[in-house]
Amino acid sequence: MPSPSIQPADFKPLSPESGPLSGLDMIRLEQAGAVLHLRLNRPAKRNSISDELLRQLHTVFLNLDASVRVVVLSGEGEHFSAGLDLSEVSERTVVEGIHHSRAWHACFDAIQYGPVPVIAVLHGAVVGGGLELAACAHLRVSEEGSFYALPEGTRGIFVGGGGSVRLSRLMGAALMTDMMLTGRVLDAREGLAASLATYLVPAGEGLAKAVELAAKIAGNAPLSNYAITQALPRIAEMGPDEGLFVESLMSSIAQGDETAKERVRAFLQKRAAKVERR
Questions:
Q1: What is the tally of structural domains in the chain?
Q2: Annotated catalytic sites, by residue?
């Protein structure tokens, strides 16, 4: 059924005194109804992703409460995230670097393949590892003034947070190569055209738009949301025959859910709205 309207002002802070979500000082958590707002909270560092921030982010997505149906992910301050905290890079050995990259993969997989849809609010710098983080989200709302970059080539490093897989599929390997080799920076409209964002809104309106979308998505059948976020990216990697077979399985599973049956009945009995032209 449709979820009640939610506004950014409706969110209340979550500060558990015990349990895995207690003591997360680099993340701010707020909830309104079925929507959780997770805010990266290192504004003085442009929300660069340190080992500890990565650990806290991973902890949240591994311990989502059953009441949460959608997560809105944003950054405190003037930027979404400037990416990897480079102050931690120079001291790692090759083996440590591999383990570090795999920790990013585990965290970001928990976001993309977690139990609920995730909407990222992008503003200011969406750079390097911050762009890799954004690519994990199922929807991305960008504000005018956002900018995108992959400066790994100019820093003498390589993407390590899944960008070579996720970003190359979003924007194409050719554009990603250009950005990494030359340090090219895309503005908000170029990012939208390159599929780095799903929506583009005026500066300062990203959170409101994301919350509006989150409330709508939270009103969907949970099994349908799960099938969309879990099956679609996997089917896209399959051959046509295998993909169509898995589509048939997912379609029948979703249709067999009692919530789905009730929604179809509501539509047939004219208790649900029809799709209308905008």
A1: 2
A2: 132, 152
